[in-house]
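ok here's Uricase:
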Amino acid sequence: MPIKLAANAYGKNAVNLSRVIRHAGHHEFRQVSVSVQLTGDFEAAHTLGDNSLILPTDTQKNTVYALAKEHFTGTIEAYGLVLARHFVSRNPQVSKARIELLEHGWQRMHFDGQDHPHAFTGGGSEKRRAVVELTADGTTTVWAGLKGLMLLKTADSGFVGYPKDEYTVLPETTDRILATECEAEWEYISADLDFEALYQKIRTGLLRTFSAHQSLSVQHTLYAIGEKILEQNDEVKEISLIMPNKHHIPFNLTPFGQENTNEVFVATDAPFGYITGTVVRG
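and the structure:
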């Protein structure tokens, strides 16, 4: 039976880029991790050791930095498009470029009603994400999203009516803490959009839905978030969410002569429920 090379790609991962944008009177600080993946005519490199069509990953890394001065001044989606177009246009052996960007949030410090011109605080665990794919025929796909977004509410959440067997000890409840570390990714219908405005609108919509939804399960809230985002944003084709259930378990205060009326909890890291879903149109 003949042996042949199947799907393959290569690139440079985790190119950590920091950028200071110097405005009149204040600085803007951006920090992003960029990964480049190229797909194309690379069979000879695998089967013959012929590197004549392999753009070095070190060159890819240098390109990320070299183009940042002029082009990384707006959204990560826009910068991803610049990088993808660069690699595809200059390398005819490349059939597809995929650029993934993960941005760390930094905000200017705020004192006495004013933003400090050049001092910043980190944004915690939450990060903004974008993925750009460009094929040699010009087909462009843009995804955006976020990860590490910590969400919690202390009311309007319950979990009842589930199957029970001899191993079930979990009590039903109509009043519990709902907590998750949300990851979301949505696909845009076009590469020519106001990415910043859409991102802020979608993130705010996610927060509003989570906070207001009468949750009967994590799955119930996940779907409600996806449904609302699609209803409010025609520019979004579909959205996928990951919402692990970060459990907060009521602590038994009975041995101490106290009643725990959902006020004292044990926060557990593991194990945890892992809930995922994709919400699409029609």
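+1. Strands lie at 10-23, 26-40, 94-111, 114-135, 140-153, 178-188, 236-242, 248-250, 265-267, 276-280.
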